[in-house]
Give the backbone structure.
Amino acid sequence: MNFRPVSHYFESRAGLSTAWQRFVQFRVPAKFRARYVTTSMILFGFLVEAITGIFLWTAYSPSAQTAWESVYYIQHEMFLGWLVRGVHHYMTDVLIVVMVLDFAVLILTGAYRPPREIRYWLTLVSMFVLVATALAGYLLVWDQQNYWSSNVRTHLMTLAPGGTDLQAIVVGGAEYGHHTLTRFFAVHAGILPILYVVLSGIRGWAAYRQDVTRQSETRSHETTIYYWPHEPLKALVACLAMLAVTLALTIHFDASVLADPLTKGPLAGADLKPPADPSLQYPAARPEWYFLYLFQLLKFFPGESEFIGAIVIPTLVTAFILLAPLWGRWKIGHWANVAGFAALGVVMVLLSRMALQEDAKNPEYHAAVAKADADALRMRDLIQRRVALESGELSAPGMISRDGAAILLRRDPMVQGPELFEKHCASCHAYYDRSRARDDLDPNDREGVDSGEPAFFRIVEHQLGPNKERLPLDAGLGAPNLYGFASREWIRGLLDPALVSKADFVSLWTSHDHILAADGKARAEGYESETVDFGHLHRVDAPYFGATAHENGRMATWVQEHIAAEGEEADANAAKLNDEQVDAIAAALSAEADLAYQRDADATDQAQIEQGRRLIKSTCATHCHKFHEAGHIGLGPDLTGYGSYEWLVGMIADPAHPRFYGANNDRMPAFAADLDRPHNNALRWDEVATLADWLRRDFYRPEDERPVDASSPQQALAAATAALSSVERLPRVEDFADPLAGQIARAEALFERNCSACHAFVDEAGQGVAARVVSAPNLHGFASREWLADFLIPEQMQSLRFFGNTAHAEGEMVDFSESSFVDMDDETKAAYDAVVVALSAEAKLPSQADLDAEAEEAGTIEEGRTAIAEFSFGGGSCIDCHKFGDDGDVGTGAPDLTGYGSLDWLKRFVANPAAEEFYGADNDRMPAFRREDHPDLSLLAEGDLELLLRWMRGELVQPSEAGEPTAE
Amino acid sequence: MIRKETESRPAPVSAEPSTAATDPSPRRTFLASLTTIVLATIALGTPLVAGVAMFLDPLIRRANGGGEGRAGKLTRITTLDALPLDGSPVQFAIMEDKVDAWNREPNQPVGSIFLRRLANQVLAFNAVCPHAGCYVAYSAAREVFRCPCHNSSFELDGERIETPAMANPSPRPLDMLDVEYRLPGIEKAIDEKAAALATTTVEVWVRFQNYKAGTAQKIAD
């Protein structure tokens, strides 16, 4: 076949053959020149970067929500994407090394000296352009490492004169964002490479011109050889070596990657840290290795002098490098330059080494890198998460939402749960596995952290701040240990008399943490001479209520009294619940939580759970707790759905809500009480969701049989809304236009919530607040003449209206009234009437003010008072049991009648009915509504108590109604 | 070939050096040239091949069955009551979970259909014109579906309209889609008669599917 016409066709148009002829005939000096090789290597490196770069370009998407995501996709999903990206990344490193070599040869051979200084400067600018291209490229990855190290670079820019404007131009605004990426991308893939090509063209042309000129000048005494093919062959061998090194770096020198490139490859290749998160500083962010010396240099210039390290010194060095040819023309100047560059190189190497060594010795650096690497792997799991569907099958991979990938990590309970717990909960709550010996827990133990269960001391350590100076204060760590909250073991521990109020004070100097221990020891020695209480040097380790206001509260007391301690004979006290019963209660209560990790046990132990439910209804839900339809809200937390997602979210949102601890809440802050205005809350809804998920261990684990997804902020808000609206909040006076109406509404609600479990407040017509279980007197008209007159009649006293369902139904007062107020003679009847009038007058009821005044005038009151003190009824005198004014004594189990029913008397009575002046030991179940030791923890706030009592006494009446009694 | 020519011809450049000692023998030069070219191919070919492989990822993905094709997924569109009794077509968007490279978003528009309620059945058409993939529009005035791109027109039952005055470039009628009727909350289809007689709400479900454009046969995409 004759190709000649074809080749002639192309030749006549393109002249390629002629160009080729020229190339083949081109001659170069025979003397070997290292820079021919290094220059070719740089060109080769640039070509490889260009080729891989263009293909990466086809898959990269520069925006804050897609940059990392597209790089992830290239790395982990696209066929051989990791290889292309790895070569693109590592070739940069190799290229930098070759450029340094090239530069060293350039200096050593003196090729920078005039008349070649222009080429020298061009070389410098080309190097600068290549390095700048690389720097711009790193940010495009948009991961934590590159985001934060770029951030430092652009911030340092502002130190230069006019730097703020420069930074704004580079960053594309005040802060990093979409335009930072689009700009960096254009700079990295367009502007700088084009600039480099132009510069290389100029340089090549200059070199060619020079060589040609020299050839014509020197041909007589210099041996020359053909350039083609042996010179390119030498260079190519070097280039292939570059490629080999790059590929070896890309597979991390691990030949097994070659065996299984599709699964192992993505894990090798260029590093991909977790996505950039502006809210989360990455403490291990470091510049690339060829800038480590600058990074180290900056450490020597604290504060304002940073300017020197970041700007002045680099400028001086740059000036030296640029001006070197000026004096290099003389021999002495050349040697000075060689020495200068050598010294510069040595300083750079030493500084870099220092930086590496400092990091190597810094455990925080290693921890940050390890965490970032673990998070990066976690990202992969999260993106590829396949959760269990209702049908039992696994869903398609969850991938990334349009909000970007960072949100996946930021909302991952496994990663963020411990962080949030440390930040918001760990100043009071502990979180560690009590079944593991404390010595097993290593503060640097990542194992526990990765499975969502951080080691105890990691959290304690956090209390101390970065310098480990701040020590936990006395009760700083006293709230319940939330490890396994609402699990059977956890509840079983709460119901253990030995644990419920247990509090260990752990001395710091025996602590596992050696820094803590040393610190504690030093302080202890310092204090030894003085007699100082070391309480504040101790960490409190209380599994449940041991270091809270509930330590001796109703729950702890109940557990002590009603549950058999370990080893205690169950039949020693028949009133106590035995192990089997307590286990059943724990199982039933824990089943309320519907914990994923306990689901199997919940399913198999149905009978036990059913038994437990009955026990809860008959023991827990009688007075204190609500449990489904049994019991009522008021004293203790609602046990319905205890520990469930909804319950827990509600508890975190507002522990002082009546459904939870109400007024009994001990210092736990409301983290998200405002359902409508999230900005008012300490935690955002996504954070509440994350915490609740983490505490319940509801987060994605690929190895789970039925993997679950984390809950969303919307779910948390919905759960909180449901949890907090299942019980209404007390009405607030200020919500009403008419203050009096507001007071009445609130007082009535207070009565309903605090008293109506036992007491009714119902008038003759049946209007008012009914008691849920009538087990205390109807308080409507309490201490009025009618109320007292009825009360003293034995049948009435024993009826449900008064003592019917109480311990007093068979008490001394009933006996007394039976022997005194039945079949009274006239004298007794008169005394009885006077007693009723006088006693009722003690209350100073506003509705009876006129009647009291009349009686005072008529002397009936005085008569009654005398009768109380002196008259002997069938059963004896009132003051045999009661105190009244100066007569009688307290301490008999009968209330003091002085000021009976008055506001002050009622306040004291309700505050503590079991006080000596009232019922003492005879008090039947009525709680003390105020606490002297913890006024803030009282069941009723002082103002609410007064409001409630004034309402009961009929003081809160609309003026028109108030007029009615007198009109009648 | 070219090499040979180069060797046999006298060099056109006159700057022939006087020293002949370095002049390589043609054979050695040929081998060296060949090696150089081979090595250059390897050096630049490696990144190029890797890059091309990455670029062809969509093909590899498809061959591996990756990138979930929408193989006729049943979607709840509306209720029977919401469709006009006169049989005029109503357009609905098809919302599905959409996978776009690294993104997965729920409820993204992936297509559009027309529903028509007839006496005892509901007809569903894919709104994509079988000619070139534009969306047809319903012209209420003329009671036809018309494609805005190349004027294909279709009857209300989806059949092509071909008039001497205006050629119809569409190779086939509008693509009809499967319709199911369901009672709310029950994952089982009821038949057309039951749907027509039902006194409660009846949901209309459609199996959404795209078909290859430009062919006379309906070939699922």
User: Anything to note?
Assistant: Chain A touches chain B through 60 residues (CB under 8 Å).
